[in-house]
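Please, structure for the following, as tokens.
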Amino acid sequence: MIVNVIGAGLAGCEAAMQIANRGVEVRLIEMKPQKKTPAHKSDLFGELVCSNSFKAMRIESAAGLLKEEMRRLDSFLMRCADRCRVPAGGALAVDREQFALLVTEGITNHPIIRVEHRELTEIPDEGVTIIATGPLTSDALASAVERRFGASLSFFDAAAPIVSADSVDMDLAFTASRYERGGEDDYINCPMNKEEYENFYSALVSAQRAPLHDFDVNNPKVYEGCMPVEVMAQRGEGTLRFGPMKPVGLVDPRTGHRPWAVLQLRKENAAGTMYNLVGFQTNLKFAEQKRVFSLIPALHDAEFLRYGVMHRNTFLCSPQILDSDFSVKENKNLFFAGQITGVEGYMESAASGIMAGINAVRYLKNKPTLTLPADTMIGALSRYISDPTVKKFQPMGANFGVLPELEQRPRDKKERAASYAARALDSLGEYLTYIKETDEGDYYENHC
């Protein structure tokens, strides 16, 4: 028995490991290093194209709950992430290169995962296959998917620039976490007064953008969570001050007061030699990024190690195509996983890989496939992307809005979030106990 997994991104690597750990051989097909998309730079698996943050760690948050559910499902990528964490306040951020190295080593050293470096241009007709090629699926395979399933959808997202730590003027910056969450040096904060912010804002909204192809220049579809900072700024002068540059929870030690606006820099690697501009995804021309972002006082002489880029993401109209177990409705031996299914976010993508991997094995062994309970975050997302009643389908990340309403809904927002999380983990625990007592007992007793 063998399962084909196409793509060695987050979803593909998670799926491959789930399959192999259940004793089924994996053929993992990855086109790197022979061919790369414009957004990929590394030859390694599990490359993080955008941010190096996996969002909040608190279980009482939607993102934190998702990660805890993944841990309880023996997530390979969560183990890798926990081993290469970098300080990021209340978020789980990783050393980007170390993370990819751990993922690559884990996959290539597994005795029953065989890696083939080549581009797949057609959907395999035989055997069990998981397509996890992500939102940057190659043109040839994307065309094959469109021919099979009809027109696919697309949107654009963007990555933020990275600067050298020693080029940040610390006389004009200070280290602190918002509301003192996390370590005191988790973030470098670049404060601005009202005049400095207004000068920066004026330059930002008038700066030249890099050209994009194959979309409506005047009306690009951009996922809200990766909105370019220059697009966000056009909504109004105060938008950034209530968004990525909000100063709340921070006090500038030079003045003893809250700044007018703040840009936060987060560690990009464990050594702390690189920092990314938090919330500053952008599609400005490289020269314009240097000019405009250098207007932030602490970055007046910043060395940009990587400029921000914007790229096209492709995803299926999954409610018409997929079931909640991530299999194709009309072809049950074919699965999709990752952001191509319409789940949005690193960990959401990996979580779908967990479920696609588990279910590919179950299908191969003639067992009923699994969908986690609707009140778990993973179960709710899998139902959302497969719900035929969803209109105007767009990518969806972890949020409490996709969960069923609580029977007794606390008025306090924090208490309500804690109730959602507690219910989800209780439900997941009961479900895994049921599975453990039936047909996957040995695996779940030893691993989860």
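Residues 213-220, 444-448 have pLDDT under 50 and may be disordered. Residues 162-308 form a domain with the Elongation Factor Tu (Ef-tu); domain 3 fold (CATH 2.40.30).
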